Amino acid sequence: MPRITRENLAEVVDGIDWDFLQKFVEVGGKQKAELDRLSKRPPSSSSHASLEEQINSRCQTALIGFKMQEMAGGGLTARGPGAGRFPPVQGGMLDCLNQLKKIVIDDYNASQRSQRTVNYKKIPVLLKRVRSLLRIFYDCQIGQKAHPDLLLCDWPQVFDVGLELHKIALYLSLDRPRLLAVMDGAGAEFETFVLEDPFDVGQYRLIAQALQEAVAKDEEADDDDRMDAGEVESKAGGDLAAHLMGWFYGDLHTALILNEPDGNEKEKKWARKAMKRLVFWSTNHVMRDVVGDSLTDAMKPIYWYKEPLIRFCQAGGMAALIGDWVNSSCQVLCEETLKDLPDECWENQTKKSLAAITKELQYKVAHESSEIVVTPIFVNAMYNMYRHYGISPFSSAGRQEGRDDPVLFYYLQHRIKKEGLGMNTKSDWRKLLQNYVDIPKSAERRYHWENCTISIKWDCLEFYGCNNPACPEKKALMDLRKRRVRGVRVKEVEDRLDKWGSRCPACSACGETAYCSPTCQKEHWPTHKPICVKKRKDRKK
Q: Which segments constitute the MYND-type domain (predicted)?
């Protein structure tokens, strides 16, 4: 679809296939219900299923996601340049996957029957080859370049690669003796590949990340800068190499975490490394964008069981659980998990993990509704954060807000500090959060304004401050904006802008609008009167 502008909006709308869109929504609704069902903890009877049946069941989430991608023409349907060769070319993707399956599945099974030796040392070599071919394919696809090894990318659909890696990893993660045999037999190279090698993020995603960070730090960054950074990020989003490896890594790390060994020091070391990496991958926004739902899918067993869940949250993974509740293929599972979350999960949080938690909660409010804050999950989160860590995480989150974030944490810490609120019970928090839901629009705008960068204040002054469109001070500031030179800071002018945006008193009758002077309020009264009267009537009901 072309980029939508005011000029081409009608043309774009006319070009939409509405029948397809309706069908996509209908199918998506059914698939979402199936994903919700699959994300739930399997019944105890499932433990009697064969290994193959368990693996097929666990792969259903990936298959449903692919069906939706297929309908939308997503990147996982991409055909390899070397597809169609038979037999598969030696050293190509299909050859590597076939060798991996033979070693992990067939050779291991045979060794259990006849005590024969299996050459596990080839596994890390083959996995590195798989990773390399995925990287070559996506770098060439995004950069529109050629590479001699492209013909070794011989998959019919690139999703097949991720699915096969998922199955191989599930054979290991659901059969612990097999996993330990491979971890021991494949040696240090495999341990390094799984537990130490940096995740292959890709150069285009790294460039996009650096650009986004530069824009975020630049107080003078304007909408054009943010749009340019967004376009680079969108292009980099086509790199799915890491996403396809995500199942393999996620499955193995989850398996190493689930059953923490009692006495074996080697297995304890593996579990510690796996926990550290999984927490980082699952709570880092860049990594989550890179890996996507493949990691969430692999991590489901951690959310199913109390003991690994507590260890994961205490190690810093709480933000991952909340983030998956905010937006993932396992939202229902995470919601149920958060409803019954043991209090121990809130222990041992660090400044870094608390910052990640508050960021996810902010995101939830920003993309749903302020009403979400009075739900039991939110109330419990606020209560436990304050009970364990005081006002500090709220103050930090309030300072980090930007234009698109909710004013939630700024409001909470402001009220608690200003009024000396005790906040000792969940009832106290429910009341304060309900007050947040009910804050007037004028107060909400003022909180937003106080957390905007100077560039955003200049760009968006039409949406803040005095609600009188004919406000002379607003017009004067808009004239100053036209003459403003980027990077040239004039304190007197900026103080004038700040004062105008943050000190406009609200309408005393409804609180929905604000004015910089009685004159502006009087001029705007004919327009504001119907709204004001309605608001007052609504309050009396």
A: 507-532
